Amino acid sequence: MRLPQSLLLLAVVGSSARASSDKIPRPRGVSPDFAKFYQDQTTFTCISNPDTRIPFTAVNDNFCDCPDGSDEPGTSACSHLSRNSPLSVAERPGHSEAELKLALPGFYCKNKGHKPSYVPFQRVNDGVCDYELCCDGSDEWARVGARNEEARQKAMTAALKKKKELLDVAAKEEQGIRDEIATVENEVKGAEENVRVLEESLRVVEEQERKVVRTKGTGKVGALAGLAKARVEELRESLLEVRLQRDETKRRLKELEEILSKFKVEYNPNFNDEGVKRAVRSWEDYAAREVAEATEVSDADLDEIAKADGKDAGIDWEHWENQEDGCNDSDLVYKLAAYLPPSLVDFIEEKAISVKSFLEDKGFIAKSSGSSASESKAVTAARDALRAAENSLNDLKNKMNDKRDDLTKDYGRAGIFRALKNTCISKDAGEYTYEHCFLDSTKQIPKKGGGSMSMGKFARIGSTTVEEVDEAGNIITIEKVALEYERGQHCWNGPNRSTKVILECGEENEILKTAEDEKCVYSMLVTTPAVCPGGEEEDAASAKDEL
Amino acid sequence: MASIRPASRWTLLLSLVVLISCIVVPGLTVKHENFKTCSQSGFCTRNRALADDASAKGASWTSPYEVDPTTVKFDNGQLVANLIKTTNNGEKVQLPVTVSFLDSGAARIVVNEERRLNGEIEIRHGSKANKKRYDETEKWVISGGLDVSKSAAINPETETGFTKVLYGPNHQFQAIIRHAPFEVEFQRDGQTHIQLNHQGLLNVEHWRPKAEEGTGEDEGTWWEESFGGNTDSKPRGPESVGLDITFPGYKHVFGIPEHADSLSLRETRGGEGNHNEPYRLYNADVFEYELDSPMTLYGSIPFMQAHRKNSSVGVFWLNAAETWVDIVKKSASSNPLSLSANSKINTQTHWFSESGQLDLFVFLGPTPQDLSKTYGQLTGFTQLPQHFAIAYHQCRWNYVTDEDVKDVDSKFDKYQIPYDTIWLDLEYTDDRKYFTWDPLTFPNPKGMQEKLDESERKLAVLIDPHIKNKDGFYVSEELRSKNLAVLDKDGDMYDGWCWPGSSNWVDCFNPAALPWWKSLHTYDRFQGSMHNLFLWNDMSEPSVFNGPETTMPKDNLHYGNWEHRDVHNINGLTLLHASYEALLERKKGEIRRPFILTRSYYAGAQRFAATWTGDNQATWEHLGISIPMVLTNGIAGYPFIGADVGGFFHNPDKELLSRWYQAGIWYPFFRAHAHIDTRRREPYLISEPHRTIIAQAIRLRYQLLPAWYTAFHESSKTGLPVVRPQYYAFPDDEQGFTIDDQLYLGDTGLLAKPVVTKDTFSTEIYLADDEKYYDYFDFTIYQGAGKRHTVPAPEDKVPLLARAGHIVPRRDRPRRSSALMRWDPYTLLITLNKNGEADGSLYFDDGETFDYEKGAYIHRRFQFRGGVLTSEDLGVKGPKTAEYLKTLADVTVERVIIVDPPKEWKNKKTVTVIEDGAKTGSTVALDYFEQQDGKADYAVVKKPNVGIGKSWRIEF
Could you tell me if A439 and A311 lie in one domain? Predict the structure, then answer.
């Protein structure tokens, strides 16, 4: 890891000049930290390869002698010593086998009056003044740079202030939840008591009812069976009709899907007709969508139902029409099921509810209350009251559990994202507007109309490593907080859309950039004060400059 | 209730549909039904039928063409005569023929048709089409070299029935014209190398009226022809021209790009490993083209070379109409006319074009270099490109905003990977209207170009010849009001479908289109464009989405009422001509070398633009075919070509992408490109170790740019390819004639063999001669003529050898762009041959202007002889020489590396450097380094600091 070292070096560079190396002028491009290697004015020893010694006149003579490049701190002569270069043995004569290790972080640029920095050696003497990195003596840059530095500091302070506000909000919300839990706990206790009381009164009422004699409904079944038979016939016919219509629709749908899938394969994507591409994309989405849990029955089952009733198939109406015995009428339908082919049971069970309620509505059978069809009003009332109390108790318990769960959920350090939850920000980029609602979802909204597309629902707070370049031009990795959103709209031939929202310290909640890194895998770069260093009291001391 | 239901049939069906679609998604095959096979093309069918008929009749077949001896006249290097065609019903058709013998040693034979020439024909459907056979291809294609030879003369020893003309250097060449039946033989030093109409397949389809009752012949393909729902009205009826060209004793023919096929062309009439279809030349936008195929592609160069040991000859078929070429190789024993003792195979080729005159150039070599030069004198040499154009190009369909472009630009710097040009595909435009910017996505085009200019980088934008047909769009309105568009067969403005939807096409055949097209590109009219913006002319075949074979109807009319049929293959060339003029001087007084990329091309396009192999795919096979395709274009006079690095369609994996970069750095035109539906794949996005592998490959290209630019310069003067196939470098080594997977960079002796197969970590490099070859990176020695040597090729290595006897100029310091290397010092890499000698050269100039024409350049010859390295001036002084040299005063040679130096140098510590004009020499250090394990020793001269523009010597 070269990073911490060079960061450290820079920190030192930034603080103040070192006293020890002031006497002998440093060769061009050497920072105070490396000055000690260039003290001997007769012989220079390559910093990382002390076996190689050259006359001091060879330092900065625009020829690369040291295998670590240390003899050319002020020229580009050693710039080819880089992992990115196609080095042959003759570029580091005698050292080509050794690992390539560069001694210097770059060309040291004093940036008089401002923060010093290192410039990559490949930029030294290329004829371009690198204003962004180094421009000693450029008054123009000096002003801009000074302003930038000032603005940066200002933004940093503002961001930290906002973060503290967020922390406050988060802490208050958390406290609010704790308070609510306490309240709800009390309510639960009350509700439990209520339920107990109502249970008791129901028991009492039921006891009284048992003494009342029930009226008998003889002969009703036979009449009902007659009516039901006619009705079932009617339904059977409708079923046949609907089935024909369904088959026709299915055939047409199949034909249409075949046309579309052929179209998808045969169209020329290179022609890039937006209309065509949109249609293909929609088709892909359509085809990729999981088919809704099928509620269909097999044709065999339908065939079975469609058969005329009789002894061998369906319901033996005769048996029922001659039935004298009374029974709980509303169970009739369930009993019918027992006579159907076993493969139909599931279907019938599903449909039974609707048929039953149909029959109930039409008055063919009495409405059922689950235990007895002939309960007195008093029992029903008591039962209803109990049920209401139970429901309200369950609601309260659920509410309490939700709140408790919420407290244990990860809301980031010091729960700061609690304050941002459901805060939405958006950004226009070309044809789309991208939306990010913290801890909720990410979306892509087309400007030219059409529905918005879910790029993911919140899954967790995670982290990601991001590559950055330090002052010396080395690629370093930095860990950043990332909000992960998953299970967005499904992609044709791919995964469900997902988004990683990478957070950076900034004064505002703002989307900087959205990119599709891989098919349907997005990354969003978002600034927020929430991830700025510092602010959390216990961590204030170790805060570091990350803006 | 929770029981699991079996999936219904419907669900199954849907899954099946989904599954099938998934399988077919990567649609890797070309849509054959969109393009004609020979049997779907009337004139191809007719000419092939003629060949079959002649072949079936064998010796009893006689060509119905003969020279009328009374009309033969020879004057001033030119022979004119009348050729008579006797038709089936005894009619005599007059065909004036001209044979010109040129100063360059080329001969040209032109056959026309008297009736059409005089306009004495009737055309059908009331068409306004020009009655003549198209005779203006020359105007667009030929740029010089037509001076007739004063020394060509009739051979006094000519028997009756023949006319013989001696020509060429020292009358080494002879054309023997037999009058009846007509046949022409071309001899060099008394040996026949090329025969015309030897098989009797000459065919000039004379004009005839459409007879109500028919003629008794098979007229099935004479008149209207339909294909893919389009009907070609063919108002002039059948009018093709065809001819057989035999190369006796030649087993290999090369050239006639563009096809995705091997370098050595295959036979086309079936058989194991052969094609069944003729090679087709009809510029077309072929979607997802297939490999190892004679199918037509985007460009056409009807120039073919025949090669055998010690001899190269060639022909150039100058015709802009649709053309097919059949190739058959026959054992020579059946051919008593063959005079060559050692030859075994005759290659018989059969060429036919749909319309136009028969116009053929014949080249007698004898070396491949002679062919390149003579052909180049006619069609022009490749333009010396701007220096940035031979560096790395970063392209994608599309960089979506100006901020995106700037972001990519800074990322390259962040990762210290050099590039020179970033490209914008069509989406930068406002609603596909060229010369405009999308106001939402590219609100600040100038800011973007200024950012690029900070590191002297360039922007290339797409400008196509189809203009959105829309009221209020100034380009569309001007095109209409100035009548500059291509017309349909009825003379109305042709309207077709392309990127912008309904579009019209600028007709660059119209001379008035030139000033208009130029005006569109000026800074004040192309708002938002700056001096570092260059052009990409795509879709110029032209591609028409709703046209027959994705192009224009053949009965469309161009300026001069020429049918599109007559000019199709040069359509893209005329656009280039206009675009080149447009870029030449975008602001008064600011004259710079244009840079254009074209997809469609024809012979001559090398004068104006670079090209590429079109919309390839991210597969190993496409990577593999790119090498022969690039090599073929090189020997056909159009070296500035490359393939889309990474593959245009689909996503390459990291290994393929890395290998493609390692191959791509050997394309003269080095550009990465990707389809809009692919993942981003800029080199810095690729994870390690592949990012470093790719960066190293790109930097290797940059390191060798001095050698590349020198090779381009040579090509611009001599027509030699920039990268050369094995046979071209070693024309006497028969084993190398079919090798098309390794290549040589110019004259540098650098031999690269890119890895083009998966999981391959060593490769076989073929060495033709007995010199030593050194691994470029570690100096491992390979030696042994006529065999393949195993060279390690780990994933991070480009297999690259440096042949002994060369001096390669390099620049080792990596910079952000090639322009920023301008003031960097050079390294010379020297490999000494068996005699302890080496040669090399360097050309360099400002890389941007035409000042080199006034002497503002350096051109050095480096020689190592007798222990002395010298730099001599190869340049010719001009008015700007001194001024230019002054700017290079501080540019020096920083390092000389000698690979495998004489062992006695071990004790040498210094060498003496003497610059021209200096009174005394100076002494500089030499370090000798020994190596083991088959790796050569090397010595390094440290800082000789001799001026690159100066003459000097270094004594070892």
Answer: no
